[in-house]
Amino acid sequence: MPAVSVADVSALPRVPVPGPTDLDRGVRSVTTAPRGYEGEGFPVRRAFQGVDLRDLDPFLHMDQMGEVEYAPGEPKGTSWHPHRGFETVTYIIDGTFEHGDSHGGGGTITDGDTQWMTAGSGLLHIERPPESLVRSGGLFHGLQLWVNLPRADKWLPPKYQDLRGGESALVTTPDGGALLRVIAGDVAGASGPGSTHTPMAMVHATVSPGAQLRLPWPRPYNALVYVLSGSGTVGADRRPVRTGQLAVFGPGDLITVEGGTGQESRHPALDVVVLGGQPIREPVAWAGPFVMNTREEVQRAFEDYQRGRLGVVPSDYVPHGSLPGSFN
User: CA 192 to CA 201: how far, in whole Å?
Assistant: First the structure.
């Protein structure tokens, strides 16, 4: 799992040692993500399925894409599709993905890169592997997170943030047993490069076997830990977790994650994504690619899409051999 790594963690800043009055967050639930398929047929785990939206707020949805080893000709993406009212955060751990939209935004992201797309008032969007990966096949693994926007920001103009992996703030634990990549938010004295409309934090942590991460976490934020690979425990009571499981924490000051002493040879450590944000606490009206506050706003979004008001496929768009450029 390449993402971003360092040869010597001893040179990195350390996570602060918890204070005597800091409260460990208890684990409220552990759920297992069901498998499914997205877009033109790439495999995903539905990380948030079965979890109440009130526990996820300000987050809406997250897919773990892969981990999959494609044969030549197998890599798949999505066709052109609309979004309005929220943000998509695509984090690539292994492999390469291309993005494009009807406003001319987009780019290419690879090992450890993140593309933060504010759909806002609406756009058409496509995600796909590059032609070279389609031809050669190869390993692909990533995440896509949907972050809700508050009512006041749902009509913002669309925007991209292209975050290179090298921009992530790197931190380690006092004993060097865990490597943290801070992608967004202020965590343990480090600030991630992502600019967010809703106060939030996103961290990819690799925890060595037997090592413990006690991560200070803003008390107003909710707290979620999703296991990308490996096994270990979460919380002070050491609830077991493994690949594809999501832990939802209760209130407090600290998130505790511990790597299991026995890991698979393919994944020598526990890799997790830690998420949290300030709940928006507004009504959510959600249908397909549109997330608004009322059913009427969602209906208007569908009408605007059907009438071409969210944009058109760029005239210079060239589809890959197996990736059509038509609308669904």
Answer: 8
